[in-house]
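Holo model, S-adenosylmethionine. Inputs:
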Amino acid sequence: MSHEKSLKTNLKSTLEYRVRGIAIKLHKDSKVYSPSVATLLIAENLRNVEGAEVLDLGTGSGFLAILAAKLGAKKVVATDISSRALRVARKNASLNNVEKKIEFRFGNLYQPVEDECFDLIICNPPMTPSRMPVPRFTWGGRDGRAVLDKVIEGAPRHLKKNGRLIVSVVSLVGIGESVKLMEKMGLRPEVLDYCIYPFGKTLIRLIDHLKTLPNADYVFDGSGRPCWRLVVFEAIKS
Ligand SMILES: C[S@@+](CC[C@H](N)C(=O)[O-])C[C@H]1O[C@@H](n2cnc3c(N)ncnc32)[C@H](O)[C@@H]1O
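Output:
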């Protein structure tokens, strides 16, 4: 478990984060996913990026792409299925003076990078399991795995030899299932970091649905609150 702490400062129209001594400013936009516990746990574990060709799949605010650029990536491609997210992410890249280092592309999953391979793929997929769509940027389909499975299945085709997929997995969608799928796809997964976090209002409302999912796993803290676990994996293509 990492002992580094990310800091967030709330200003009038921007949020300022500090990760491992690196400042990142973002424009506020309530319709675009703001960096979350999962984003920050990935950020704290983003290593060996210097000189790498990086794909940030589902970039949202652009936070991880901006961090990769600031960590010295040779090239960063950031994709999203939301044109609004891409618009905001582009503005955020300019705000952080890395707009020349990041290429923003619209499209579903790996479609915008059809024939390209990368040293590093970063993804914090939408994983909220729900029958009905919750905000699109967090909805992972009925069992929460709709995007995650495709990210893992497509990774080997878009990674160079010894390339790495860094992906967050929430226990509500099944940690063991995810490890099995990464191994099936010829990736070697290792745990980079993990945390435990209490359910928010949306998940509390979804608890009856979660009880119907065989892979959904959660624990209770000392105050009896249900909590999900989050694991950040690094899966290497041999
Ligand atoms: C959980 S958010 C993560 C955003 C950002 N990477 C972060 O960690 O802060 C997931 C992002 O993936 C995007 N997304 C959802 N489905 C997608 C798909 N099929 N292809 C590409 N992007 C997708 C959403 O619009 C959203 O911006």
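The first strand starts at residue 7 and ends at 10. The mean pLDDT is 95.
Archived with the compound record.
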